[in-house]
Amino acid sequence: MGTRCQATLLMTASTERSALICIDALNAMQQPRCSPLYSVMNMANTLESSRQAWVIRGQSRSRRAMSWPTWFARNTGEKPMLYLHTAASSAQLRALSRETRQRGILCNDNETRPSPSLPLWLASNPHCTPYDPASGEEARAVVLAALQALYVDGEPGFYYLALHDQYDGPGLSPQDRDHALRGMYRVRRSYTSELKVRLLGAGRAFEEVVHAAQLLETDWNVAAQLWSCPSYTRLAREAEAAQRWNRLHTLAPKRSCHLRDCLAGDGAPVVAVTGYPQPIVDQLAGYVDARFVALGAGSVETSPPSRYWVAVLALKALADDGRIEVEQVEAALHRYHLR
C-alpha cells in the first residue's frame, strides 16, 4: 500500500472527461432541499453510480496514515475524488491530505466536534480551500465548483467542506451561487428600521444568526442585514492579496475584493459569527471599513455562539457607535439571562 500511495496521479484528458461527466450527472439529478450533509451524501451516491469518480467513505479515527482507506491511489490516470471522512484533529487531516497527495474534495461531518487546531490549520494551509456551508444549496455549489476547478481546469490543492445536518436554507440564484463561492452573499436585502446592523454567519452558526436578527427586530426595533459566509478564509485571502497588490503597485488603480465590495457604502456595524474558534473571523477585521465584531466558539462563554449573544453584541456595537444608549445593552443581558 505504501508504494502505491506514493504514486503520482496523472492528470489526463480522461480525467477532464470523467469530471465533466460527473458535473453533468450532478446537474441532472433531482436535489431536494436538505442540509449540507445530506446534500453531499446524495451527490456521493450519484457520483458512485456514474463510475467516473472515486467516492471514499472513510471512518478511521486513527492518526496513522496507513489507517485511512486510500486504496484508490494507484499508478493510473487521475479521477475526481470525493472523500467523506470524520477527522477530529489537524493531525488526522494532515495524514489524510498526505495520502491523497493534497488532491480532491474532502468532506468532514462536523458532528465529530473537531479540535480547535483543525480549522486553524485549514485556514493557514495554502493547498486548502475551506468552506463551511450553511445550506445544502451552498454545499452543492461548492462540490460542483471543486470538480470544475480541480479536474477540468487543473488547479492544484484540495477543497474542504465542513458538513452539518441542521439547516437547509434558501435557494440560490446564479449570482448568489457565484458570490457564495467567493465567500459571502446577501440573504436579506433591505433594512426596515433606521437602527441597523449587518450580521454575517457561516455553517451551522448561520441559523443562530437568523434567529438573532429576529430578536433584534422584535425586541429592540433593530433591522439586520443578513449575509451567509461559506468561506471566511477565502474572503480573507482575497482581501490580503488585493492589499498586497495595491502596496506593490502604487501608481495603478487600486484593486478591491469581494468582502469590501459586499460591505461598501454602508457604515452599519458588522458582527461576524462562526461555530469555530474566533480567529477564523478575526481574519476579516483589517478589511472591514466599519465597526467589526468577531464571535466564535468560546469567545463569550458559549460554544457554539448563541442567538442571544449575537443580538447582545450587535446592540453593544450600536451603543459603541453612539446609536443607542448603553442601558439597552444592559437590559438585553438581563432579558436573555446572560449574566
TrEMBL record:
Gene3D superfamilies: 3.40.50.920, 3.40.50.970. It holds the Pfam family Transketolase_C_1. Keywords: Pyruvate. Residues 183-286 form the Transketolase-like C-terminal domain. Transmembrane segments: none annotated. This is Pyruvate dehydrogenase. It comes from Pseudomonas yamanorum. The lineage of its organism: Bacteria, Pseudomonadati, Pseudomonadota, Gammaproteobacteria, Pseudomonadales.
